[in-house]
Inverse folding.
């Protein structure tokens, strides 16, 4: 596990963009393609905006990039909560990734079907081989959730499936999420965590007792990959 603290969100976001660009160049050079699963929420927006600007806009081999999502809220694309719409508006609409290589999660009316469809997409993409995404970006909620893996949710118990349909108590929307089964097979997982509101969760996840049902962020342990925690000073303030 590599913990990298940064003074502020801007330098944290620059580092995340640099990590993306480095991994993309390496993957395309060695395997001819780069697969990434994006985090939702608001924290990664600045990273996405940076990737839409020079030098990354002009340097990344976008034609070989394949974009997935770590989770999605089942809302219309016009809804400000839609993770795919945020990434498209901040980034993907501004770089030449072929539209056939951008794979948003489709929240089928029957949520479970949407989850199964996304898993099938991965099975086709990886040709029946283990689903080794080159990079997974993740965020961390103040309650210790990541992707849409929330405390005490049934999806935390998934040991087979790569995706799960999620209903969060008190939320009026449904979600689809990747499960730790596929996330932990990635080559690189990078958390991007910023802001004082995350300080308690970050300290508990990284330095507290193991309690993954309460702190799903602790479920993320790449089996044969690298785990980065890219954090800003405010989020790291409670760490010893
Ligand atoms: C989601 C996200 C979620 C997010 C955290 C942090 O769709 O809800 O994937 O896991 O990363 O909730 O969100 P913020 O970056 O907005 O604090």
């Amino acid at each position: 596990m590599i913990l990298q603290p940064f003074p502020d969100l801007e330098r944290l976001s620059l580092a995340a963009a640099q990590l993306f660009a480095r991994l993309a160049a390496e993957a395309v050079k060695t395997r001819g393609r780069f697969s990434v699963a994006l985090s939702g929420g608001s924290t990664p927006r600045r990273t996405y905006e940076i990737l839409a600007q020079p030098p990354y806009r002009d340097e990344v081999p976008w034609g070989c990039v394949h974009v997935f999502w770590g989770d999605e809220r089942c809302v219309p694309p016009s809804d400000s909560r839609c993770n795919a719409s945020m990434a498209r508006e901040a980034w993907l609409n501004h770089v030449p990734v072929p539209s056939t290589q951008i794979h948003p999660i489709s929240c089928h009316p029957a949520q479970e079907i949407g989850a199964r469809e996304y898993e099938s997409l991965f099975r086709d993409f990886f040709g029946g081989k283990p689903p080794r995404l080159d990079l997974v970006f993740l965020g961390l909620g103040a309650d210790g959730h990541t992707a849409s893996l929330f405390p005490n949710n049934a999806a935390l118990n998934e040991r087979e499936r790569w995706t799960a349909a999620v209903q969060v108590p008190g939320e009026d929307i449904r979600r689809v999420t990747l499960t730790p089964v596929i996330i932990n097979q990635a080559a690189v997982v990078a958390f991007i965590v910023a802001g004082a509101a995350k300080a308690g969760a970050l300290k508990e996840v990284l330095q507290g007792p193991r309690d993954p049902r309460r702190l799903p962020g602790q479920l993320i342990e790449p089996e044969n990959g690298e785990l980065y925690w890219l954090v800003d000073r405010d989020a790291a303030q409670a760490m010893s």
